[in-house]
Design goal:
The complex is a heterodimer of chains A (355) and B (293).
Chain A: H1 12-16, H2 22-41, H3 44-69, H4 77-93, H5 99-118, H6 127-147, H7 149-152, E1 158-159, E2 164-165, E3 168-169, H8 173-194, H9 198-208, H10 210-215, H11 220-246, E4 248-249, H12 256-269, H13 274-298, H14 309-327, H15 331-345
Antiparallel strand pairs in A: 1-4, 2-3
Chain B: H1 2-32, H2 39-56, H3 61-84, H4 92-114, E1 130-132, E2 135-137, H5 139-161, H6 163-173, H7 175-180, H8 185-210, H9 217-222, H10 224-231, H11 236-256, H12 264-279
Antiparallel strand pairs in B: 1-2
The chains are: A mainly alpha (355), B mainly alpha (293).
């Protein structure tokens, strides 16, 4: 880890603390101000967008653990979100469980399903694992939308009750903004710390070379399963939040395309980087939103403009992925590192060694 | 009893098309090492290019098929030059993501130009079915099977005996050694993409003849992934055999399990996929790679 001049590890507490130097506190302050500003002034549209970004981010964090840290490809994140969403919807709607209990339960159920479909990862990796997770995506969504119709409501969807916080109902975008931000912070705190525990380092060892990791004493099978479990835990939380935020959960929200988007967020943001997850998710969701708003605005001049929103999204998304892979395969996180190095070494850029 | 045989034969006929599309995947993977998730997208684009020539330009069907194949060949070469050559030496995830990005791009472009409607080709085959002992077969299915069989045999012979085919196998085996022996590796790569795309477009046209030309062909092309996994990623014969197996199993599942499990036909290949990955991960005829640290 590269630290600016004058920051020393003098005792264990500073060594393990998350906020290490002035810029960290500055960033935290700016983000807090942004949060308060949004909470204070933003309209429902902006807050809704922020909520969508927050929920997507939580699920993307999960995939970051599995793919970015542990190096296991997965293309079923949306299906795991669906498991969490339906679990939470059924637990609260049909069994009357409180939202605050249903979210952890949904996360655990999604984690269990993740363990089941992570099982092939013990024997295969790379492309084969990707195929196993594509199959997981189709099979999970098949069971949800065609087989357990009595439980899930089939294609009509399953409504979810409005959760309350000590008697205060959470139904406005503003209320959800607070709740989702809390969950996001919790998830972020956990992922940052997990990266530097024994488990996180074992994950990175597996990613870099699984055979070498096994030889040096990393228990491959249990850590791979743990990565799947954690990934689906995040997906479950994100799905449960999504279900209650939307007040109804439909199978169309969790298609194969959505799962592919999650891998796209990581590629654009940067694999294995926590800030990269933020960059990727925010960039792509904002691009998508600009496209929708722009084309809807154009529809007054060209009435057919709204017809091209869906293909336009695909084209833009495909282009972003392709261009990033060709020109910046390490993602926006790498650009961020370059910027930080530039900032630290300014005005003597030739001092910088961190490339 | 005749019912069962009827389902079986229809499964074989449909499976031969799956096998053909899987063959395109295997050719690209064999020569370039790219695992092309976008094979379904290429299938769809091939079907739409043929639609463009035969209906929108009004050319005779057989002429437009030939034009489609030529266009697809050059399209494949372009894809190789601009998307996959920069990815040589990149990690596996990057290359796979590139094909996923390509899939999105193709999907978006096709829907952008042609919209989400169903189209069909002009009728060139008689529409009355062939009846043998009470079993019904459409002409389309039969001709598709013949086309797929001819194409597959031609490709097998091509890889076995032609100079370029041998070059491709050499490149697939060891790029550096092949280059040292005088094989033009980059040229072989684009040729492989060209041929792979021609095969995909043929599959697309056959799919379009049997059913409709619509953007969902991309999804049907997804079924090629279970096929290649079952057959082994590097095996041409395996792709054909697995195509037939998946086609038959899918059709039988659709016929006999449908009353109990609604819509099982669409996901049956993926159940097969999970099953193979747990039982025999490298497929029936795939190579088992030995890794060294």
């Amino acid at each position: 880890m590269y630290l600016p001049c004058g920051v020393f590890n003098q005792d264990y507490e500073t060594d393990i603390s998350i906020f290490r130097h002035r810029e960290h506190w500055l960033l935290a302050g700016v983000l807090t101000l942004l949060f308060i500003y949004l909470l204070w002034t933003a309209n429902n549209y902006i807050l809704g967008l922020a909520n969508l970004i927050g929920i997507t981010m939580i699920a993307a964090f999960g995939l970051q653990i599995l793919t970015g840290f542990a190096g296991q490809l997965s293309i079923a994140q949306a299906a795991f979100m669906a498991v969490g969403a339906y679990a939470s919807a059924i637990l609260t709607g049909d069994y009357g469980l409180s939202f605050w209990l249903a979210v952890p339960c949904a996360a655990l159920i999604a984690g269990g399903v993740g363990l089941l479909f992570g099982w092939p990862s013990l024997r295969v990796k790379g492309f084969y694992l990707l195929m196993a997770t594509i199959a997981a995506q189709f099979i999970i969504m098949y069971f949800i939308s065609k087989i357990f119709i009595g439980l899930t409501g089939g294609s009509g969807g399953h409504p979810t009750p409005i959760p309350t916080f000590f008697g205060i109902p959470i139904e406005t975008e503003r209320g959800w903004f607070i709740v989702i931000t809390c969950f996001l912070l919790l998830g972020n705190f956990f992922i940052v710390n997990m990266k530097r525990t024994k488990m996180g380092r074992a994950f990175v060892a597996i990613r870099d070379n699984d055979l070498a990791a096994e030889v040096t004493g990393v228990n491959l099978s249990s850590y791979k399963l743990a990565a799947f479990f954690l990934c689906c835990l995040y997906a479950g939380v994100a799905g449960a939040l999504y279900a209650h935020w939307q007040q109804i959960v439909m199978p169309e929200a969790f298609t194969l395309d959505k799962s592919m988007w999650f891998l796209g967020y990581l590629i654009v943001g940067g694999l294995g980087s926590v800030p990269g997850t933020y960059f990727g998710v925010i960039l792509i969701i904002l691009l998508e939103e600009f496209l929708i708003v722009g084309l809807s605005g154009l529809s007054s001049i060209f009435p057919t403009a709204t017809n091209v929103i869906a293909p336009g999204q695909n084209i833009i998304f495909g282009l972003v992925i392709v261009l990033f892979l060709i020109f910046e395969p390490r993602g926006l996180a790498h650009r961020w590192e370059v910027f930080k190095t530039y900032y630290r070494s300014w005005p003597f850029p030739y001092v910088a060694t961190h490339k | 009893m005749w019912d069962f045989i009827n389902y079986l034969i229809i499964g074989v006929l449909v499976g031969s098309i799956y096998g053909l599309i899987a063959l395109g995947f295997v050719i690209i993977n064999k020569a370039t090492g790219v695992l092309n998730v976008a094979q379904g997208g290429l299938v769809m684009v091939g079907a739409f290019i043929c639609f463009f020539f035969s209906v929108q330009l009004g050319l005779p069907f057989f002429l437009s098929v030939i034009l489609t194949l030529v266009t697809s060949f050059f399209l494949g070469m372009l894809l190789d030059r601009f998307l996959f050559r920069p990815m040589i030496g990149q990690p596996e995830l990057g290359v796979i993501m590139m094909t996923i990005g390509l899939l999105w791009l193709l999907d978006g472009i096709v829907v952008f130009i042609w919209g989400p409607e169903n189209y069909s080709y002009p009728k060139v085959l008689p529409s009355h079915p062939i009846v043998i002992k009470g079993m019904l077969f459409t002409h389309e299915l039969l001709w598709s099977f013949i086309t797929a069989a001819v194409m597959t045999t031609a490709l097998l012979l091509f890889f076995r005996f032609s100079r370029i085919g041998v070059d491709m196998r050499a490149v697939a085996d060891d790029q550096q050694a092949a280059q040292a022996a005088g094989v033009k590796v980059k040229y072989t790569f684009s040729l492989a993409w060209g041929i792979g795309n021609v095969v995909a477009a043929t599959g697309g046209i056959l799919m379009g003849v049997i059913a409709f030309v619509f953007y969902g062909l991309g999804f049907i092309g997804m079924k090629v992934l279970p096929v290649v996994i079952l057959g082994g990623l590097e095996s041409i014969g395996g792709a054909i055999a697995a195509g037939v197996i998946v086609g038959v199993l899918e059709n039988l599942a659709g016929a006999y399990l449908e009353p109990y499990l609604k819509g099982i036909k669409e996901v049956a290949p993926f159940f097969i996929l999970i099953f193979i990955l747990v039982i025999k991960p490298h497929g029936l005829f795939g190579l088992k790679r030995i890794e060294r640290i």
